[in-house]
Each structure stands twice: as structure tokens, then as C-alpha cells.
Amino acid sequence: MAERVAIILAAGVSSRMNTLLPKVLHEVCGRPMLAYVLDACRMVGVEKLYAVVGFGADQVSQRFADVEDIVWVKQDEQRGTGHAVLCCKEHLEDFAGETLVVCGDGPLIRAETLKILTEKHKAEQAAVTLATAVLDDPTGYGRIIRDVYGNIQGIVEDSDCNREQLAIKEINPSYYLFNNKVLLEAVEKVKPDNVKGEYYLTDVLSLILATGHKVVAVTAVQSEEAIGINSRAQLSAASKIMQRRIQQKLMENGVTIVDPDNTWIDARAEIGQDTVVEPFTYIHGEVKIGKDCRIGPFAYLRSGTVLKNDVVLGVFAEVKNSTLADGVRSRHHSYIGDATVGRNVNVGAGSITANFDGEKVNRTIVGNDCYLGSGSILIAPLELKDGSHVGPGTVVSQESVDQLGQKDQ
Q: Catalytic residue at 389?
């Protein structure tokens, strides 16, 4: 595989979103939209990621501070996509491989599509290859201009299209693969000769064509992948599509999701084979669920939760930052927060861990084979030994346990 890097265009400001948060940090199914783009690039052999940031640059870089393969490139003034690429010149001027250029606000990008792009580029031995999409409503997108033989002649931005060009359905979703040397030579020659007065990356293609280099386009981008996020409505639409993808993958891996339309599962969640997720279940954050579990309906699992195998969480059961061992049963109206619960524990209806004392969060440890009666309250910090029995409506603290010597548990 040829040496390959990527430039991620992530500097833009979206006024339509009416937000103080950098657009690429807005979450889609629990992850920043930029994270999906980075992952897709890595899956096609990208060795280094150059993320061009502008508005909220420090916030973006801090969110990914633990990632080692990203170089942050500052675009102090947003003067268009061509200018954003030019900001990377000092990092890439000695690089002789391939440069992938994609947008950071396109979380629905798929590695499968980028693979088609890279394979086409190699097969055609092209200087530039771009992946295009065909949309029923192409409004807002740059149009792909081809000659009568189907050869690409350039891209015209929506705002610069004439009436005939506006009727073209094939659009540019900004998936590019360049020979890096050709890219840098051309991008320096781009002029802001357009309605917006910006330096368009799309103008690079015309310049490259004019020098006799080969430019090809492959129609490989699904319509949903072409969605960029410029409004809260588009963010919501993208989240619904991503949710379908997440659930489809889980179901292919042996998870039963009874009612996908009324279930929400975070992209970071892991769920084991033969687990059943009932309707109106909400799984948020880094949650791990084992095999043969039954979750819901109306269950809420929060980040840091680990359920081992054969765990049952029923109606209005909430678990946060806790580990529940094999065979735990918590069938209705319970809250387990910041706890470690042993094997085969029964959590009665209405039972809770009181994990916050007003100043700090404390942990509860429940041993194996314990019984927590309905309406019991476990005041953390607390440790119950194996086989403990807590009667219905009992309020248990470590002090009371120590006083009783655990005789009545």
C-alpha cells in the first residue's frame, strides 16, 4: 500500500447551528462527529492525520489530546477549503505519497467507500480521484461536470452554477485522493475568483486537468454519506442514520433489539451474543454488556457500566458506573450507582444505592448471593459480605452493619 496521509477540514464555523461549541465536536450517537471521520481514514491505511482547525481550535485538540496520530494545523482565517489545504504545506512539502482530503463534519463517511476510492485511484494511476454521489435533491452541493464521454471536466460550486448546471444530480461530497506533489503545486495557484471570494479546493481539479494530469471520479458515495452537518436538524438526521448502523451491526453479531425505532444505543457500547434489548432502553456512554442478558423495557445504562453474563435489568432500572456480575436480577424501579455487585444478587423493586453524600461520590460493594429487599437503601460507602440479606424497606449504612456484626443481614 502506498504511503498515505489525510487532511481533515475541520475549521469551519456553522452559524446555522447557533452554537458556541466547535461544530466537529457535536456528538452523533455519543461520539464527536470528527471521531468517525478519523476512524474511517485510519481504516484505509492513513498513517498521519492533519486536522485543520480554526474556530474553537483548542477545544478540538483537547478533546483528542490522547490521540497520537493527529497533527493539528491552525487556519487562523477561514478563507476556503483550498486555503485550508495550503495551511498544511509546511508539513507535506517533502511527502511523496497520497493525500486523502475529507471534511470533518461528515460523520456518516464509511471506510468501505474510501476503500473504493483508493482502489480506483490505484487502478487508474490517477493524479486525482474523487468519489461522487447522485442525489435527488443536489441543492447546496458542488456539481460534477463531465464531457459527453463521461470524463470529469471540473466541479462548480452550487452558488456559482448556471441554470443548466443546477440541474445536475451528481454532486461532490468532498472525498478526494491526490498525488501529494500534484496537489501542492496546484493549490498554490488557486485564485478566489468566485461569488464568496474564497479559495476553493474544487478549483484545484481544473488546474490539474489543465496541466494534463489524469483526474477520475467514481460514483461510490451513498446518499446518506453525503450529508454534512450545518444545522441541528441535519445533526439529528445524521444521528438517526448512525443509530441504524449501530443497531444493524449489533443484530448481525447476535443481539436481539426488539424495537429498533424505540431504542437508543451509544456508538461506544459493546453488547454480547443472545442479549435481548427491550423497547425504550437507553444505553449511553462506554457500556459493556455480556451474553444472555435481558435489558429493559425502559432501562437506562450510563457510562462506566459493565454487565457480565445472564444479567436482567427490567422496567425503570438505572445503572451508572457499576459492575454487575453474572446472574444479577434487578427487574424494576431500581438505581445502582458506583457499585460492584456480586454474582446472583437479587435487587428488589425500588432499591437504590445512595452514592452521593452532598460532597463526594462513594462506592457500594455487594457480595455474592445477596438479597436486597424491595425499597432498601444502601448508603455508600458500604460493603456487604457474601450471602447478606437486607429486608424490605431497610436503610443500611456501614455503621449499622458494623454495629450488628452483620447478624441480621
A: no
